[in-house]
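User: Please fill in residues for this 105-position structure.
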């Protein structure tokens, strides 16, 4: 696992700790390097972000093409379940534990 300098993971919500483990296994299954690029960050995220509350993490997708990144996002989304929102952004996959805002299917 690679953790980006300055990324804080102490104090993550327990569901996010479990999510990081699940995501790391998915990355390893495909032979991708697991990069945690954001955890509990107080700055640098949009208003209302769950990062400062320890309920969001970002996982890097450097070196993956768009199809690989989308497939990875879909697999992570399925593995984490309905209490999580999983989004593919420019250079990372954002995952957040948000059970109060269920997904619309």
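Assistant: Residues filled in for all 105 positions:
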């Amino acid at each position: 696992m690679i953790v980006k300098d300055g990324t804080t993971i102490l104090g993550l919500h327990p569901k996010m700790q479990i999510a990081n483990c699940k995501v790391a296994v998915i990355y390893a299954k495909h032979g991708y390097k697991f990069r945690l690029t954001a955890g509990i960050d107080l700055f640098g995220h949009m208003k209302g972000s769950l990062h400062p509350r320890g309920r969001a993490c970002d996982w890097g997708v450097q070196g993956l093409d768009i199809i690989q990144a989308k497939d990875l996002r879909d697999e992570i989304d399925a593995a984490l379940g309905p209490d999580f929102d999983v989004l593919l952004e420019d250079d990372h996959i954002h995952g957040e534990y948000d059970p109060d805002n269920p997904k619309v299917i």
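For context: The first helix runs from residue 14 to 30.
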